[in-house]
Amino acid sequence: QSVLTQPPSVSGAPGQRITISCTGSSSNIGAGYGVQWFQQLPGTAPKLLIYGSDNRPSGIPDRFSGSKSGTSASLAITGLQAEDEADYYCQTYDSTRTGFYVFGTGTEVTVL
Amino acid sequence: EVQVVESGGGLARPGGSLRLSCEVSGTTFSSYAMSWVRQAPEKGLEWVSTVSGRGGSTYYADSVRGRFTISRDNSNNTLFLHMNSLRAEDTALYFCVKESTPYRSAYSWFDTWGQGTLVIVSS
């Protein structure tokens, strides 16, 4: 049972902009901890897309951007492409349990 | 380029044991905390355990505490997960993941993932 809630699915047409929300609480996102976003293409391992809420690792296109406000975070994908079809997970630290990293419930992105 | 390669998965009986291994190359292994994250079939990601860079600090999810033990051999750039008293609900793809800092931190992140090793617990 995840403490971070994401919409189960989001879809968009090629070229469109979509956003994926990640809702937490005062013990995780609201406490100021960084939020990470991972992309998991079918049959592959997760890949880091965003770290520290709004930073992109080298090699990640600037079509992907992250933001955070209060107890929620968001991932935006602009110029949606067919290759963006994947599952997306948010992740952060939760201070209610020592050493706990928590993941979101995951969102399946479909390109129409 | 950092490479992470897991091994040791397979079929185990309920109550049985398995040991997963993870070899890391292309980086100074002892400088980073390492974690295991699992994914049950058709389910989301679940953090399992973390060990600090020097191995002195370990952390576990409630679901595995007391049954799983994480350890590392920095001389051989290898991470381990010893799994005892296995249950059907432990069936999952287990990913070995490199963190961005030497210690578990609220401000670190999982920057490099292996491809995973599949553990199936069934009678």
Q: What tags apply to this protein structure?
A:
heterodimer; A: 112 residues; mainly beta; six-stranded mixed sheet; three-stranded antiparallel sheet; 9 strands; 0% helix; globular; B: 123 residues; seven-stranded mixed sheet; four-stranded antiparallel sheet
Your description of this structure?
The complex is a heterodimer of chains A (112) and B (123). Chain A is an all-beta fold and 112 residues long. Helices cover 0% and strands 44% of the residues of chain A. Chain A contains no helices and 9 strands. In chain A, the strands form 2 sheets. In chain A, strands 1, 3, 4, 7, 8 and 9 form a 6-stranded mixed sheet that branches. In chain A, a hairpin with a 6-residue loop joins strand 3 and strand 4. Chain A starts with 8 loop residues before the first strand and ends with a strand. Chain B is an all-beta fold. Helices cover 0% and strands 50% of the residues of chain B. In chain B, the strands form 2 sheets. In chain B, strands 2, 4, 5, 6, 9, 10 and 11 form a 7-stranded mixed sheet that branches. Chain B has a 4-stranded antiparallel sheet with strand order 1-3-8-7, with no helix packed on it. The chains are: A mainly beta (112), B mainly beta (123). The A-B interface holds A 2, 31, 33-34, 36, 38, 44-48, 51-52, 57, 89, 91, 93, 95, 97-106 and B 35, 37, 44-47, 50, 59-62, 95, 100, 104-107, 109-116.
